[in-house]
Amino acid sequence: MKANDPTRKSWVEVAKDSDFPIQNLPFGVFRTASNPSPRVCTAIGDNVVDLAVMNYLDLFEELEIDNEVFNNPYLNQLMALGKTKTRALRDRIADLLDERNDEAKDLAWHFLHPMDKVEMLMPVQVGDYTDFYSSLDHATNVGSMFRPDNPLLPNWKHIPVGYHGRASSIVVSGTPIHRPMGQTMPDGAERPVFGPSRLLDFELEMGFVIGQPTKMGQRITTAEAEDYIFGVVLFNDWSARDIQKWEYVPLGPFLAKNFASTISPWIITLDAIDPFRTDNPKQDPEPLDYLKFDGKKTYDISLEVAIRTEAGAEATVCRSNFKHMYWNMCQQLAHHTVGGCNVNPGDMCASGTISGPEPGSYGSMLEITWRGTKPVKMPDGTERKFINDGDTVILRGWGEKNGVRIGFGEAAGKVLPPL
Ligand code: CA
């Protein structure tokens, strides 16, 4: 992971508070007005770097990667090259953008694009999507609202609880979301009603993306899991609480969750967040053997959620951290595959809402406003219990260490009325 060297500087100007210093080098897919073909890119400062052009210019010559891998609407083929190759690619990009190296500098006009002039696209083709439920504080908060005497179900500390979600409606940041229509049972009513969801919520989550396939029957151990996880994104699991409340017994979330999820456009590699490993939470009772692991699998990554009104007033309503996860990504993937379920490049696993222990760190409006009993004040004087039409919900995330700030960009989505 030479690319992570905190002493590196780029010949491309990078602002101090940028999400994309030379130590980040995430992967994404973009297009421009002058060239509408989607292609693979990375980011540096306020610029997008066209990796298809870099490869065409033979700047990755020794890696021998087909042009097709970069001239591609998705990162699936690139990720499937395997960690050894994609790590070497990231290291090579770091060398090419390093201020001590001028071999690519004169060619910059071929591959550098101002970020505000490009369109970022969905970075991966998501074949399957799974959502976990791995924050102890979130599970306890939600459980205590619906089951005050018994907030945490008996399996929760033994199983990384999850469900299989919907891949077709995962969209990239910037894509508007329509408020879902659906069936709900109003308090005191005798029959359910049909109409727009009145309790539209976000869920602050991180998603990890699978880079390598497995065969059916194969189990990924916690020790192997990081070889299969290409990187992470911000993930907003939009949720309709009133639809959820009526439908979730007995089989769990269905239409309350399947209408939309929003991800950030950049996949931050697991390598890039390596410096932010931190102590794991204590797991008591001890999990079964297949869920045990060695080393630090928890990451100190700051997370925020802001709501922006139609008129542009923005309020930060949540400050949380990825370190609040009880079950880590390696345990989640080991559990996911322990029965022999195979995974494919592009599959996405979301963490579950990441709430911390304090009220300011709750990762959903359900918890922040405690089912609407404590509305949030917006800077324009209005209040929110849940999300209004015209509101934009923005997730942000970053880690910081040794003077290097690795940012995630944004996962933003504006809510529109139902179609
Ligand atoms: Ca969720």
CATH class of the largest domain: Alpha Beta
Give the total of beta strands.
26
Quaternary state of the chains: single chain
Largest sheet: 8 strands, mixed
Integer-rounded radius of gyration: 21 Å
Ends distance: 47 Å
The unreliable regions are: none
CATH architecture of the largest domain: Alpha-Beta Complex
**Helix share bin:** 10-25%
Instruction: Count structural domains.
Output: 2
Supply the helix-strand structural class. alpha+beta
CATH superfamily of the largest domain: Fumarylacetoacetase-like, C-terminal domain
Give the mean pLDDT: 97
Q: Which ligands occur here?
A: calcium ion
Task: Give the DSSP E fraction (strand runs of 2 or more residues).
Answer: 25-35%
Short descriptors:
alpha+beta, SH3 type barrels, eight-stranded mixed β-sheet, binds calcium ion, 16% helix, Fumarylacetoacetate hydrolase, domain 2, globular, 419 residues
